[in-house]
Design a protein that fits this description.
The protein is an alpha+beta fold and about 800 residues long. It is built from 17 helices and 44 strands. The protein is about 20% helix and about 30% strand. The strands form 12 sheets. A 6-stranded antiparallel beta sheet has the order 3-2-4-9-6-7. The protein has a 6-stranded parallel beta sheet with strand order 27-26-25-24-23-30. It is globular and about 90 Å long.
C-alpha cells in the first residue's frame, strides 16, 4: 500500500532571489514563515508585513505583491527505502512555477487549475535531507508574455486574465478586488509506492429507469514500474466486481439492483453509497485505493423546440425541475482560506433559503471536493462552468494544451458527484463576441469558439457522457438565434440593472434566467469593520473604493429614484440610503422571480447573481463578505419556498398566482382584501387557486377588490395561510403612506442565552419593516427580513447573538428598525 507524507510544515517564503522581477522597495528581506496550503498574501498578513487588503483602501497599497516573483523553500526527509518510487504531488500551484529538488529543476507549471506529479525518487538523498524550492513568476509577467506571443484580445476588464490559466477574478471584477495571488493554494505531499498505483479513475453512473437497476462503470488507468498481472476490484455498498488489467487499462461494472435514487432538494432524498476501487498485486495485497461517495440518478436537459422557442429544462430521474438557483463565486479572493466548514456554512445558508441549484461561475475556480460533497448531501444541483469568463480567449499554444489537460482532469475529478448536473462551456463569451464589439476587433483571430463548440463538448462526451453539456451562458443553442435571445436556451438579464427599472423584468419570459441581479451595500456592521474610523456616506472614500461596478452608485441612485425619494449623499442620510438600497435590491429580485416562476414551465429556472461575496463590498450578493445576511437573503427564502403566493398582471389586470413546486397539490383558499392606506378594509372576499403538484394556478381578482389604479390610497392584500402577497397600484413615492406608529417590546431568553425576542405591534401600515440586528451588536442576527404589517398586527423577530444587555431597551431597538416612510 502506498504511504503519504503531507508537506504542510517547515516552509519559508522570500522574494525570489533570482526572480525576473526586481524586488520592489516594499518587499521584505529574508525568510518569512509560510503556510501550505496558502498564498503569498496570507503569509505576509500572518507575518504582519502588509495591512489587511480587505480594510479601507489597503488593496491598492499591496498591489506590488502580485507583480513580484516569490520563492517557497522547505526540506524533504531522506529517501523512503521501503518503496520503489517517491512522487512529489502538488494539487494546486498558483500559477507559474519552477519546482526544484536538490537544486535540480524537476518540473514547471503554468496552470492554477491542474495538479502536478513529479518522480523525485532519484533526487532524494538516502541519508540526508534534500531542499525543495518552488519559484513563482508573477502572473502579470506570464500573462503579458503570452499576450505578446499570441496577440491582443478584447475583454470586459483592463487586466490580462485570459492569457493565463488562473482564477480570473483575482485580477479584479465588478464586485472583487485586484489581488493577484501566488503560492501553493492546495495541499502538497510525497507519495511513496511500489509496483503500481492508480493513475486515473473514471466512474460512470447509470440507472435503468424501467428496472431500477443501477450500474457503476469504472475505467481505470494504472502507472506501473514493473510487470505482472494486476487486478482492479470495485465495491459499491455490498456489491462487488473485479477484473485483471489488460496492459495499463481496465474497465469493470458493478451492478446495484434497486438502488435508492438521489434527488435534488425538495424532490426526494439524497442517498449516497460508499464506493471503493482497489488495485491488487498477484498476491492479493492492496497497492492503492480510491474512495468516493456516489449517488445514483439520471439527468437530462430538454432543449426541444416548442411554441415558445427553445426549452432549457433540467430533469432529474425523469422529473422536470424548476431551478431555484444562485450563482457562486469564490468565497474568498484567497481561496486557500476556504475549508470544509466554510463551504458547509455557506451552502447550508443557500439550502435554508430554498435554493436547489448552485452555478459555479466561470471566472473563479473548480471548487474543492469539499464543496461538491456538501452539495451531494444537501441535494444542491451543481451547474459547473468551465473556467472562461467575459473575454476572448486565444486558442493557440501554450494555452490550448493546458486547457485540454485542465478540462480532462477536472471532469474526471468531479464526475463522481451526484450533485453535478451540467457542464457549461463559458460565461458570456459567445454573447460578448456578438454584442460587445469583439468581432471587428478580433479581425479573424481565435477567441474561444473552438473551445466551447469543439474541444470541451468532445472532452465531456469522451469522459463523462452521462451529463449534459451546454456551450455557454447565455447561449441560444446555435448561431441561428442571438446568443442572449430570451426565447431560446439560457439568458442573462443585465440591461435592467444597467439601464432601466426592475419593473422591466415583467416584459419578458425567458426560458431560463441564468443571471440577473441588483446591487446593494453589505450589512452595517460589515462596513464598520471594513472601513474603521470612516464617517460613512454613500460617497465616502471607503464606500467608493468598495464599490467596483462601473457607475455602481449612479445605478443604485437611478434605481431608487424610480420608487423612492433619493436620500442625500451626506453622512446624515447614510442610514436611510443604506436601508432603501438594500430594500430596493430585495424588491427587484422579488419582481423578477415572482414573475418568472409564475410562468413555469415556459420559464424553467432562475439563477440569482449572486449568493456570496469574496470580500466586503457593495454587490449583488445575498450574503455579504462577512457572511452576514442581507435583506435579499430573507426575501429569497420566501421566493424559493416550495409554495409561492403572488399577484401578477394577466391580460392587464392583477391576478392571484399560486405557484406550487411541491409534490403535494395545493388548494389555496386566498383571502383578498382591498385596504386603504389608513388600514381600513374596503372590500373582502375569498378566491381559490388549485395548483397541482409542480404546477401553477391562477385566480381572478374580482372587480370590487381591485385597488383604485391612480389614487395611491389603497392596495390589495392576498393571504393564504402564512403566505402573503401585496399589490400596490402605484410606486412608493406616489403612495399615501401614513407616518409609521408602532409599539416595541423586548423579551430576553435565559435558555438559550444570547437570544432576545423583539415584538413589534403596528398601529399604522408598516411597509417593509426591517430590523437591522447587527446595529444592536456586530454578532446579532435576526431571523426575519423585510415584512409588511397592517394596523393591529404583530410580529416577533428573534435575535440571536445578542443578550440585550446595555442595548436592550425598546428605544435602542427602534434605532435599528427601518420601514418605508411617507415622502
Amino acid at each position: 500500500m502506498k504511504d503519504v507524507t503531507p508537506l504542510t510544515e517547515g516552509w519559508t517564503l522570500r522574494h525570489a532571489p533570482a526572480g525576473t522581477v526586481p524586488a520592489p522597495a516594499e518587499a521584505p528581506v529574508g525568510d518569512i514563515p509560510a503556510r501550505v496550503p496558502g498564498c503569498v498574501h496570507t503569509d505576509l498578513l500572518a507575518a504582519g508585513l502588509i495591512e489587511d487588503p480587505f480594510r479601507s483602501r489597503n488593496e491598492t497599497a499591496v498591489a506590488w505583491v502580485g507583480r513580484t516573483d516569490w520563492r517557497y523553500d522547505t526540506a524533504l526527509g531522506p529517501r523512503d527505502t521501503a518503496h520503489e518510487r517517491t512522487d512529489l504531488v502538488l494539487d494546486g500551484l498558483d500559477t507559474v512555477a519552477a519546482v526544484h529538488v536538490g537544486g535540480v529543476r524537476v518540473g514547471n507549471t503554468r496552470n492554477m487549475h491542474r495538479s502536478y506529479r513529479f518522480d523525485i525518487t532519484d533526487r532524494l538523498d538516502p541519508a540526508e535531507s534534500t531542499p525543495l524550492s518552488v519559484d513563482f513568476t508573477s502572473a502579470y509577467t506570464e500573462a503579458e508574455a503570452v499576450r505578446a506571443l499570441v496577440g491582443d484580445r478584447p475583454n470586459a476588464y483592463p487586466e490580462p486574465f485570459q492569457y493565463i490559466r488562473k482564477m480570473a477574478c483575482s485580477f479584479g471584477w465588478d464586485w472583487g478586488p485586484t489581488l493577484v495571488t501566488a503560492g501553493m493554494w492546495k495541499p502538497v505531499r510525497l507519495e511513496h509506492w511500489s509496483t503500481a498505483r492508480l493513475a486515473t479513475v473514471c466512474p460512470l453512473v447509470t440507472v435503468d429507469g424501467s428496472t431500477g437497476r443501477a450500474e457503476l462503470r469504472v475505467d481505470v488507468e494504472r502507472t506501473a514500474r514493473g510487470g505482472g498481472v494486476l487486478t482492479a476490484r470495485a465495491r459499491v455498498g455490498d456489491h462487488t466486481a473485479s477484473v485483471d488489467f489488460d496492459g495499463d487499462h481496465a474497465a469493470l461494472t458493478v451492478e446495484v439492483p434497486d438502488a435508492a435514487l438521489w434527488w435534488p432538494r425538495g424532490y426526494g432524498e439524497q442517498p449516497l453509497y460508499e464506493a471503493e476501487l482497489e488495485l491488487l498485486d498477484t498476491t492479493g495485497a492492496v497497492l492503492d485505493r480510491w474512495e468516493r461517495r456516489l449517488g445514483f440518478r439520471t439527468v437530462t436537459l430538454d432543449t426541444g423546440a416548442d411554441a415558445h422557442g427553445t426549452a432549457f429544462t433540467l430533469a432529474v430521474n425523469g422529473e422536470p425541475v424548476f431551478a431555484r438557483g444562485v450563482n457562486w463565486i469564490p468565497d474568498d479572493v484567497f481561496p486557500s482560506r476556504v475549508g470544509p466548514d466554510r463551504y458547509r456554512a455557506r451552502l447550508t445558508q443557500a439550502a435554508d433559503a430554498g435554493v436547489n441549484l448552485v452555478r459555479v461561475w466561470g471566472g473563479g475556480i473548480y471548487e474543492s471536493d469539499d464543496f461538491y460533497d456538501v452539495c451531494d448531501e444537501l441535494g444542491l444541483m451543481v451547474w459547473q462552468d468551465f473556467l472562461f469568463a467575459c473575454a476572448a480567449y486565444p486558442e493557440e499554444q501554450p494555452l490550448r494544451s493546458e486547457i485540454e489537460a485542465e478540462a480532462r482532469e477536472n471532469v474526471t475529478r468531479l464526475m463522481p458527484h451526484a450533485s453535478l448536473v451540467l457542464w457549461n462551456g463559458n460565461n458570456e463569451n459567445l454573447w460578448g463576441f456578438r454584442d460587445w464589439d469583439w468581432e471587428p476587433a478580433l479581425d479573424g483571430d481565435s477567441w474561444g469558439e473552438g473551445y466551447y463548440l469543439g474541444l470541451l463538448p468532445r472532452v465531456v462526451a469522451e469522459t463523462d457522457p452521462t451529463r449534459p453539456y451546454w456551450a455557454g451562458s447565455p447561449w441560444s443553442g446555435g448561431w441561428d438565434h442571438h446568443p442572449n435571445d430570451p426565447a431560446h436556451g439560457t439568458a442573462h438579464s443585465w440591461d435592467v440593472w444597467n439601464r432601466a427599472d426592475y419593473t422591466d423584468y415583467l416584459d419578458t419570459v425567458p426560458r431560463f434566467v441564468a443571471e440577473f441581479g441588483w446591487q446593494a451595500p453589505p450589512a452595517h456592521a460589515t462596513l464598520r469593520r471594513a472601513l474603521p474610523g470612516e464617517e460613512l456616506s454613500a460617497t465616502s472614500p471607503g464606500m467608493l473604493h468598495h464599490q467596483k461596478a462601473h457607475d455602481g452608485n449612479g445605478k443604485l441612485e437611478r434605481g431608487l429614484a424610480h420608487h423612492f425619494a433619493v436620500p442625500g449623499a451626506g453622512p446624515e442620510n447614510f442610514d436611510r440610503w443604506h436601508y432603501l438600497t438594500q430594500l430596493n435590491q430585495a424588491r427587484a429580485i422579488a419582481t423578477g422571480i415572482e414573475h418568472w416562476r409564475s410562468h413555469w414551465p415556459v420559464c424553467a429556472g432562475t439563477v440569482l447573481w449572486q449568493l456570496n461575496d469574496c470580500w466586503p463590498v457593495t454587490s449583488w450578493a445575498a450574503v455579504d463578505g462577512d457572511a452576514r445576511l442581507k435583506p435579499l437573503y430573507f426575501t429569497l427564502r420566501r421566493l424559493y419556498a416550495d409554495r409561492l403566493l403572488t399577484v401578477q398582471k394577466r391580460d392587464g389586470r392583477p391576478t392571484v398566482v399560486a405557484d406550487n413546486q411541491s409534490a403535494i397539490p395545493w388548494d389555496a383558499a386566498v383571502r383578498l382584501r382591498r385596504v386603504a392606506a389608513d388600514g381600513r378594509t374596503l372590500a373582502e372576499t375569498t378566491v381559490t387557486a388549485s395548483a397541482g403538484a409542480r404546477s401553477v394556478a391562477l385566480a381572478t381578482v374580482p372587480d370590487e377588490l381591485l385597488p383604485d389604479a391612480g389614487s395611491g390610497k389603497e392596495f390589495l392584500v392576498a393571504d393564504a395561510g402564512e403566505l402573503r402577497a401585496l399589490h400596490f397600484p402605484v410606486r412608493d413615492h406616489s403612495f399615501a403612506y401614513p407616518a409609521p406608529r408602532y409599539d416595541v417590546e423586548t423579551v430576553r431568553h435565559g435558555d438559550p442565552a444570547g437570544v432576545v425576542d423583539v415584538v413589534v405591534t403596528a398601529r399604522t401600515l408598516l411597509r417593509d419593516l426591517l430590523l437591522q440586528a447587527d446595529r444592536l451588536a456586530p454578532t446579532a442576527v435576526a431571523d426575519q427580513g423585510p415584512l409588511t404589517l397592517l394596523p393591529g398586527e404583530s410580529v416577533t423577530i428573534r435575535v440571536s447573538g445578542w443578550d440585550g444587555v446595555g442595548d436592550g431597551s425598546p428605544a435602542s431597538v427602534r434605532d435599528a428598525l427601518f420601514m418605508v416612510e411617507p415622502v
